[in-house]
Structures are given as structure tokens and as C-alpha cells.
Request: fold
Amino acid sequence: MITANNYYNQINSIGANQLPPTLLKSHELVNKVTQEGASWETYNGNATIKRMIDLYLTKLNEYVEQKNPEQKAVSPGHKETVKHEKKQHHVKPHKEPKAKAVKQKKVDNATQVEHIEDELKFIKRFTLLNGKTKTAEQVLGFLNSVQKAIIEKRIRKTSPYAAEIKIIQEKLVQTYNAMGTSIQIHLKPETMEKMIKLVKSEKVMPSIKFIKRYVSLQGKIGVKDKAKKLFDDMQKAVKHGVLTKSDKYADKVNVMYLSLHNLLFKPKQHDALDISKHELNGLLGILNDCGCNGLEGVDDDMEEPRAITKQNKIMNSVDFARMQFDSIGFQGKWLDFIGDPSKGFTAMVFGKPKMGKSYLCIDFAGYLARHHGKVLYVAKEEKLDATLQKKLNDTNVKHPNLFVSDYLPNTLSNYDYVFIDSVNKMELQPSDLDTLKANNPGVSFIYVFQTTKEGNFRGSNHFQHDVDVVIEVPEKGQATQNGRFNQGGEMQIF
Reply:
């Protein structure tokens, strides 16, 4: 028998989506009153609501009994009678053979696209929160990702999904402000239904998925197992009608298929995937144009695609003048001081000891962590000691997005901004910084330098020529800035 105490266990086994419309509406009422089972306080404390839900439970039990009469609860004595009756029937009644159920093929109405928009990716990520327990840091990380996308104008007010993104942002803010260290998140059924419908409205073209997987293997040796899997998957896709001649990039897939065939069945002539430079540039161009050169659609067992380098271009000056370049979205004193740089900018900071350059950098790191992403502050010079702790506390910049370290990790892809304090202490050369940038595209670097007795930064002039922003602390508590985003900026450090 279904009661308030076992309601959600029972309804999950029945399947709420199988209920008739009248019972389904009552189920939605229970969800609303109990916050999807989180609290039955309103049910127990409000006589009217309790009476309505009890009536629904009665109707629900009647519905279950009518649908599955063999599951009706009986007394032990009744069970014995049933068993006795079963023993009396020695001859099994003739049963007509059941007709085989014809499975109806699901109709996929999703629009095939080259690239899933950021808004839909966030909506999908939001639906995956339902029923999951998340920490405060995880909720904040999601919220920061949404806000960063808005600031970088990857999500705009004119977006067809602007209303859903607003709901997501508000829900994350409310959850984070009300939670402790962790919380189980429940979304309204009607919200889930609407957003899942949006998520399923688009899917990436099969050809794009195959192109990504192919590019991740191109030119490499020792990838025959992965090439064989890709080759087999392409054959299956053609056999089952997933990949057809009408696909926009069918000709590119044919070229890839031939290259895979040569690698697998003509190994003496081909030790690695090999197509012409023209064709390879065509594949890379497709991925660049659709903005989908990440990992979406790549199998978990596949390696990351190689870094796709920017192609040389010639553009008409009129077209180039109309192009829009996204900036990070600096605000307040940092906008006045530096300007609004683009993603992946570089800066150098130098000044004599005790003038305040570390305070400036830590304050800057805190601002970036609060508003623009994850930050790593490498304190090679001061180490993780009381001095650094005091500066963090004095500037009040501690934040879940700000990390400190006394060494430079091999992998920096988890961070959006990296401070190196100092370049001289780590004995880095201009070529080392070039390598760091090349290996971490999109990461912004802020380099701190020691100075000579004369007050100049210590090291080659190449350092200054290779950065976008130059910040000097010539006097105690006073900083000046010159760079390509703002000329002649000044700031009072303390």
C-alpha cells in the first residue's frame, strides 16, 4: 500500500510519467508541497493539504490495484487458500501465443549542428545537477563559469535562451547563499522537462565528431588500435544511416576513410595517418570555423586533439575593421589602470623591494578570482609562509578560485590566470615564457621581476618587448602602467 512514508520509493517503481493526467497533476502537487520529498512538514501541519494528498493516495492505490491486481496485498490465510487452489488445478489452461510487440523506432527530431552553443551546454550542465549532492565550491565554480561567459559576451541578452540562463544564474546564487558545505539539489519537474527538451533540440553532426577524432590521430605513430576503432565506427555509421552522402562534410569523411584504410591495410607504405596538407588544413578550418575544436564528441578513450594552430590569413581591411574581439570585461580600478585586455594577455610587474609590487599582484589576483576565473599564484620567492599569509589577509583576497603554490606545476590548463613571483627566482628565460604561452593557449600570465640597483627590471629587454602590459612600482605604494590596452594608467597600492 502506498502511503506518505513510502510514497517516493513506490512512485519511482511505478513511474510518474505513466500516471493518468488527473493523478499526474496530484503527483506534481505532492512534489511542490514536499519540495520533491525533502520535507513533509506542510503536509503534516496543514489539514486541507493533508486531506487532498490523502485522497490522491487513495485514488493512486486504487489505480495500482486495477492495473496490477496480482500485486494486491492479502492476508496470510488468504495466501494459503490461493496456494491450495493452485494445487487443485493440474491442467494448465490453453494460452493463445502472444503476438510479438513491434518496437517503434524513436523519431529523432534534433537539429544537427556543427557546434552546440554555450547556452545549451550550460543548460545541460544545469539539468545534470538534479538529485545530486554538490559542494559549495562546485556550485560557485558553475556560477563563475556562467558569469564569465556573460562577461566575455559568449552569452548575450539577445540569445534565444536568455530566460533559461537567467533562471540558472538566479538558482545558483540562491543555492550558494543558502547552503552550508554541501547540498542536494532538486529542480522543479516542469523546469527539468522544459530544459531537457531544449538540450535535446540540437546535436552535433556525426561528421564533425569523426573529423575531431581523426584530427586527434593525424600524423601520429602507434595509433592503429584507435584508428581501427574510428574506421569501424565510421562503417557502422554509414551502415545504420547515421552518416549519409547528404552530410555537409561527406567528401571530407571520404578522404579520412581512405587514409584510415591505407594505414590499416597497407602498413608497409603507411605507418601513420597521412593526408595532404591541403586536406588537413581543410579539416582544421572546419573545426576553427564552427568553434568546436575542443573535446566535445570525442570518445573518452581518445587522446586530446593536437593544438590547432592559427592559419595564415589575408583579409580585406573593411572586413577586418568590422570584426569584434571579445575582451575579458575588467571593471573598476583595474579597468582604469590596465584597460580591458583580451583572454590570454601577458603582463610584467617590477619594482624595488618593499615598494608594494607583491601587494599589487595579490590584490590583482584576488580581483581576477572573484570575477573572471581560476587563479594560481606561484610564490617562489616568498614561499608559502607567514609573509604571504599576511599579504593575503591584509588585502582580503582569499577566495575558492584563488590558489597559491611554491612551485610551477607542469599542468596549468586548470587555471585562467597564472602569477609567477618571480621570474628571476625561477631562473626563467624569454624562451621559457614563450614555451609556457604556447603550451597553455588562453591562459593569461603575470610575471613579477626583481630589479637592479638602478630600479630597472632584472633580465633581457626581450621580456619587456614580449608582454602586453608593463607595470612599474617606482615609488612606495604607487604603480604606473603602460600597455596596448591603456596608456599611462596609475594606481595607489596602499
In short: The domain at 332-492 is CATH 3.40.50.300 (Rossmann fold). The chain has four domains: 7-75, 113-203, 205-289, 332-492.
